[in-house]
Structures are given as C-alpha cells and as structure tokens.
Amino acid sequence: MIISNCRKIVGGTGEGQTLVTIQPINFLATVDANTGTITDPLHELYCKSLKGSVLVLPYAIGSSVGAYAIYSLKEYGNAPHAVVCSKADITTASGCALANIPVVDLPNGIPLSSLKQELNARVEADARRIVVGFS
Predict the structure, then answer these.
(1) Which residues are designated catalytic?
(2) In this predicted structure, what is the pLDDT of residue 58?
(3) All domains of the chain, ordered by start, with CATH?
C-alpha cells in the first residue's frame, strides 16, 4: 500500500515496523526515554517500545516539554525512525525537528486504523509518501 499526498512536517526518510495507536501519547509522562517503552498501564501501547518503529498516532498531549522527551529518546537511541500523525501538534513537530525524525500527517479522510500493527513501513516525508507492507 502506498499513501501519497501526506503533509510533510519534518523532512527526511525513516523506516521500521508500524506501531499504531488511536490514543494520544504524552511523551513526557508516559514514555521512558531510557528504554523507549510506554509506561502508562492505561495506554494501548503499554510495555511496547517506540525504538526503531514507524510510530502512528493521532497527536501528542501534555506539556510542551514533551518535545525534549522526544529529543531524549533520540539521544538514548530509543526513538522511532519516523512518525505519522492524524494531525501533528507542536510538541511532536518540534521534538522531531530537534531529533531529526521525519514526521508526516495523513491525508484527510485516511483513518489511523488503515495502518495495521507491525507492517514494514517507510516514511518519505520530502516525497509526501508512506509505503506500507513491503518485504
């Protein structure tokens, strides 16, 4: 599957397995930067690691300091390789810009649920494209 006409937020290319959530993520309060793991037992990605993934989420919530939490994930080697949002927020956009992690918004009308868990995916932000499900 190829999803084109994504909106580029932060340029670059990143590849990994999809890690999909319909719940927002608070990068400061619910992600352990030392491990990249979601620590909130109420989150659907509880105990899952963001490391090396193509993280698919609606948007981030919480303090703007969450941007530095994303940067910390990168510094500790536990960041996603790319991020796909329904609608990117300032925390995700600025954190990923600091950490040099590509970010795109899905085109209008494409739900997060159209991207399944653990599929190979490549985000080509500059080309405004996501390639999913290749071998």
Answers:
(1) 63
(2) 96
(3) 2-132 (3.50.30.10)
Q: Supply φ then ψ for residue 30, to 5 degrees.
A: -125, 5
| Alpha carbon distance 50, 130 (integer Å) | 18
User: Hey, CA dihedral for 72, 76, 78, 79, is it positive or negative?
Assistant: positive
82 CB contacts (<8 Å, ≥6 apart)? 12, 13, 14, 15, 16, 54, 55, 101, 102, 103, 104, 121, 122, 123, 125
33: pLDDT strictly greater than 90: yes
Confidence tier at 1 by pLDDT (50, 70, 90): confident
Segment holding 125, helix H or strand E: none
